Amino acid sequence: MRVAAQAASPATFPLVGRGDYWHSFGHPFESSTEEPLMHWEVKGGTILTSHLDTGRDVVRLTPALQGRAGILYNTVHADSNDFNGYVDFEIKTAPASREAADGFAFWLLRDVPDVGPSMGISNKFMGLGVVVDTFANSRSSRTPYVYAYVNDGTVGWDASTDGKTTQLTQGCHVEINKPTRMYVSLQGEVLRVALSTAHGFNHRYDCFSATGVRLGFTGNGIFAVSAETGHYFATHDVMGVQMVAGHHIGTHGDMGGHEDHYDDHEYGREAHPGHVKLDAALDHKVAELREALTDLTSSTVDASADKATISRLDTIKKVILELLDEATSQSTRFQAVSSSLSRMSRMSTELRGTSTFFENELRQAEAAVETLHYTIEELRRSHGEVLSSLSDSHEDVRVAQEKQSSVSARLLRVVLFLLSQAVVGGLVWVIAKSSPDLSTPGSARRKL
Question: How many CB atoms lie within 10 A of CB 37?
Fold first, then answer.
């Protein structure tokens, strides 16, 4: 269904305020029975959850786990390649990961993206990507690094060079571990990117500007964000997307299963509007036919037609009236069947919405279980480290005790030896004092 395109996206950069309803979202998230996040769909490990610190609604593209990828894409196509807006995101490092990895990206793509190795999407895509690379595979770049590149569907992203061979122009660096706003604008063939990490996003700085940007397609593009982790990891959250761009709503085939559903309940009646119009036309034709038959009989009688003709006309009239009554009865039954089908359609829509809701809840539960498993692993590792430290400390204490015991034993032996020497010396001295000195002459005379 075509929707009248809005005015061309404003040239003023950066955009301040809110974007188009069709291409934007923010806290609190708006949902429907068809889509947990209105006009947006998820792929990979992406879930809708709440920020641990603020409690506000966020899209978690990846948890802080190894080897994860997630995508969030807009189900409403853009009419042209010109757009202006911003993305609020946060990349938060995990204590268990030595570095943050691998990164986050904003996209304008020709096709609905699939999960893959290019910051979370398939490697060979057609469109524009603005990448926040948080891990330097080449070990020759300083990260986090922001840059842009365009792919015509044939070039694979080269992770070994950190995108340096495909970037449109020199990028810039950005801080992580804090809410960040990335302003992006494409007007004609001029791409501009600016960043803001200050409180309230009141201050920004220009990151880069690139000219001659050609996407390889005109209009019908899809906005998307994605992220991935590798051996190292981080949490990648998106708090909101605000984009100004022309738009139209695609058909069932365009969006991979998403279209606008205006069911009978929204119109405040059981039957479909088309059915109501058809029923009114049928009733009108039936009334006209009945009136014509009545007029035909009256005019025939007035003309004094023969009785045989009048009898045949009456018979025809009765048959036609019976057919009309049967048609009316069948029309009533058809309306009942149509009403039942409408109710079944609504129930099916509600069931699909419930299924989507439970699928989202299941994803969140899975993410919670994975986080719990990761926490348990961390506790187990910490427990092992504590046990190892206690064992080492116990061994050190035992060795110290043994050394102290050895020193005490030696000291005791020395003390005992000295005591024994002192006792022997004292005994010798006492004996020497108590025995008469026979060598003295006076002593011998007194004895005589």
Answer: 19
Dihedral over Cα of 432, 433, 435, 437: its sign = positive
Its pTM stands at 0.58
CA torsion through residues 125, 131, 134, 138, sign: positive
Q: How far apart are CA 331 and CA 279, in angstroms?
A: 8
The CA distance from 213 to 412, in Å, is 90
Helix (H, G, I), strand (E, B) or coil at 149: strand
Contacting residues for 229 by C-beta, under 8 A, at least 6 apart: 62, 64, 65, 66, 67, 68, 69, 101, 102, 236
Question: How many Cβ atoms from other residues are within 10 Å of residue 431's Cβ?
Answer: 9
CB of 65 closer than 8 Å to CB of 375: no
Helix ranges (DSSP H) in 125-235: none
Tokens of 416: 């005992």
Report pLDDT digits (tens) over 81-90. Answer: 999 999 999 9
For 48-64, write each residue's pLDDT tens digit: 999 888 889 999 999 99
Give, to the nearest 10 degrees, the angle between helix 307-434 and helix 273-302. 170
Between the CA of residue 254 and those of 36, 258, 432, what are the distances in Å?
A: 20, 8, 124
> pLDDT digits over 335-374, tens only?
667 667 766 766 666 676 666 667 666 766 776 777 677 7
Instruction: Write the single-letter amino acid at 435.
Output: S
- Hey, what amino acid is at 174? V
Residue 290: count other Cβ atoms within 10 Å of its Cβ: 14
Quick one: tokens of 445?
């005379």
Q: In angstroms, rounded to a whole number, what is the distance separating the alpha carbons of residues 163 and 225?
A: 18
- The vertex-294 CA angle with 293 and 295, nearest 5°, equals 90
Tokens 């660096």 locate to 173
- 423 φψ region: left (φ > 0), alpha (ψ -120 to 50), beta (else): alpha
Q: Strand, coil or helix: what is 132?
A: strand
State the pLDDT confidence band at 320, using cuts at 50, 70 and 90: confident
- On the question of a cis peptide bond just before residue 63, with omega within 30 degrees of 0, the verdict is no
